[in-house]
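Internal ticket #5521
Category: modeling
Description: The requester needs a full-assembly model to guide mutagenesis choices. All entity lines are attached below as received. Residue total reported by intake: 1019.
Assigned to: D.W.
Attached entities:
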Amino acid sequence: MKLPARPAVLLAVMAATACAPQTSANSSSDKDDKTGTLRVWLFQEVGNKPKEKVVDSVVAAFEKAHEGTEVDVEYIPVETRAQRVKAAFNDPASAPDVMEYGNTDTAGHVKDGGLLDVTEEFGDWPEAKDTDPTARQSVTVAGKVYGAPFYVGVRALYYRTDVFEEIGLEVPRTMDELASTARRIRAARPELYGLVVGGAYTYGAMPFVWANGGEIATGKDGSYTSAIDSAAAQKGIKAYTSLFTDDNCPAAKCAGMGGNDTVTAFAAGKAGMAIGGDFSHAAVEAGKVKGKYAVVPLPGVRAGSVAPAFAGGNNIGVLKSTSHRTLAVALMRQLASKKTQASMFGAMGFLPTFSDVRQQVAAKEPYVKPFARTLAAGTRFVPASPAWAQIDSSLVLPTMFQEVISGKKSVAAASKDAAKKMDDAFGTAG
Amino acid sequence: MRSVSFVRRPWRLLAEASALLIAAAVVFPLYWMVLSAFRPAGEIESSTPRPWTSSPSLDSFRRVFEQNEFGRYFLNSLVVACTVVIASALIAFLAATAVTRFRFRFRTTLLIMFLVAQTVPVEALTIPLFFLMRDFGQLNTLGSLILPHIAFSLPFAIWMLRGFVKAVPEALEEAAYMDGASRSRFLWQILFPLVFPGLVATSVFSFISAWNDFLFAKSFIISDTSQSTLPMALLVFYKPDEPDWGGVMAASTVMTIPVLIFFVLVQRRLVSGLGGAVKD
Amino acid sequence: MTAHGRMTAHGRMTAPRPWRRRSTPWLYLAPALVVLGGLLVHPIYQLGLISLFQYTQAQVSGGEPTTFQGLGNYTELFADDQFWQVLLATVVFAAACVVSTLAVGCALAVLLTRVRAVPRLALMLAALGAWATPAVTGSTVWLFLFDPDFGPVNRVLGIGDHSWTYGRFSAFFLVLLEVVWCSFPFVMVTVYAGIRAVPAEVLEAAALDGASQWRIWRSVLAPMLRPILVVVTIQSVIWDFKVFTQIYVMTNGGGIAGQNLVLNVYAYQKAFASSQYGLGSAIGVVMLLILLAVTLVYLRLLRRQGAQL
């Protein structure tokens, strides 16, 4: 048998037809159809049914008002949203017209060229003037508006009132007390996690870093330098990761958890405390712990202070590739309107982005108070850089926490590696 | 049974006992899957799982079939798998005939290329394939799943079929031509039936790869859920709330059964087929 | 395919029959070549090309121009400690899978020849069941069997709520079990078919000479089965080196802090999770080259046996 080196021929043929890898011509569509089907992607939340109900009524009204239009809503899982959205940007033909996106993704989506600039339409919208400034900032990139804020999300401390009473515990007032309270719960009730934490729960972990004076990164307007390995940040990382022990939340179980997992565990009555958002309210209410829990702001380092929370939340945007520009913008307004936000609050506990609506609902529903207080105490945001989407989706921070939790690396080493990865990302994408 | 004759009796009994034990161990995961699918709500979450259930229930299956268009996904999967099996079998048959019954330039090169092609990590090609499908407007269609799977199952199919085609004696071909049969008549009416067992054995592999596909469906079916396939439907039960183990197991059962049926049907041919394929 | 054209033109003038014989193979090969060229060779070429470019989401969606980087992605990759760790883990894991699969498969194939029809059918059907199980469902079921809260394994072993997916080695071990479970049937069935093809007189003669079972296997069966063993080994290497679904599903995309990543999943994560398509493609190319090397070894083995392709 002879084995001739013929593949070379093939290589030559391929080289002859060489061309650069493709890019998609993701220009905005010129078409503006006034009828047809609008495709909408919204996030699938923990306990999604009430959300679907509100959306269904908005859609029904919209279809009635615009004859000849149909709205096709799909709920996409939050964990894999990045891949779906990317695919949509890559192939305008399969992209939705309107979609929900996390406010941490705004800069990245704009840089990828996926979102439509709706500055004008947003300005013309009478309701827009009541949008609170933080929320407004979350849809703005370089002075242009790329969507309408949908809700704000902040996290606070959920705790089990029945468990606290039974063991005779006080609500923790500092972070140290939080840790010791958590251990006492686990000691008294070994079947419960004290404070349920997750190694992949970045926004539950960051308050510990911020409360200790640390930052993810420093800088402004695109040029950022990572600061996650600073002494203060390391202190926060240490505080958070030291909660992953057998006397609170065993690493073997908790290291892999994300935010939803911790909320699920709390709602199922498996934890004494959890860090959950206003948006988790409906899910917890639907769980076994209904009527047996309360919420307070997450305590800071000093007694009486509040740990800075992450100013999360989602927006509704229109995709550049839409061929129904007018309709899509109209639908965006309907989905993010005061009326929808008020009913969404009733259904899911999503905090409205309009200051006046928020005040109204806070007056009616006492559970909003701790979240409103957390908001008032000052919130933080992730670096407003397009690189953040990449840092987020390549799991830089969860990896760092998990490396420390599982004892693979020291806090110093893990945070240094994470800082390096982040700087690389800022360098290439920022 | 010939090899049994010279094995001493106690040893044979021991061997048979262990064969049965191993068979039970191998089948246990499948048994557990089916069992969990039939368990009534609540029993799955029990912390003392028993290897049987007192009151089998169809609730999990009901949930699965009430899932949006589950039947449609099932059908889509079936269409994809069957198209891939038939198309790749025919194409591979022709190619295998070419490389075994003819001598021509580049023959060895081609054979080596077919071998090398088997080693290509499919997952890595998802990126370029995505762009290819987009440029041909195939995204969100079943075609975007069928075409790559035909391509990926071909090299192995050709490689395996070679043995079968080779096993058909040359004399038969000569005789056919003597009788005045045309080349295509020989190909389809004489060679094809003879090689058929091999085709069946080969198609097992293309069926599995197409039926199991998860990555392409996830990457290429972006917005048209009516074109989704079963593995995607399975994912629906991994809700962030609480994984619905009953639902997952019921959907898995539904997904596994067609392959099982297929395997049992072709079992005999598979065994003789694999033996034939590697004999050369 | 210029060679073919030339031959055609030449052949037609002299004799009709050689013409048919020469062009027919290409006619038969045409569909396969078209499909493979378009959907395999071309994408591989694209893969290699992308690996030479700075190619992230911004370039893909047209926000920024693509820039040629030469071997930039490769230097970045080789400078990354994680890559070497993942590479090592992949090689060791694949080797463990191959060895276990072959050992289990061959042992059971021999066992099959020693038993009567009923146990043989039982084992054969059980193995076919495992083989038929789709990778996604197989992974899910095994994960469920070893679930710390609801799985039967921990109950039987009495190890409480020990989590199998937390430790690096125990997670790899769990995946290995699943991989062996679903891939030993191929080895078993193939080797069994091979043993059946060995003439009975040879085995009986050896048995009459008083050779032990192990000796019969080593000196009689193994040499006769060598071609088959080479085939199943190489197939196992190719399959196990490319394991994707099992790792992806069972360790949730690569385990705690990426401890259970193997090359295939690593490439996928780089490309699709962090949109570094260039880097992901470079990893894909590295994998391709490694598997190519394995294939070359295979070809050499075949050639040493004097096999005719």
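Resolution: model delivered.
Comment from assignee: The CA atoms of residues 10 and 16 of chain B lie 10 Å apart.
Ticket closed.
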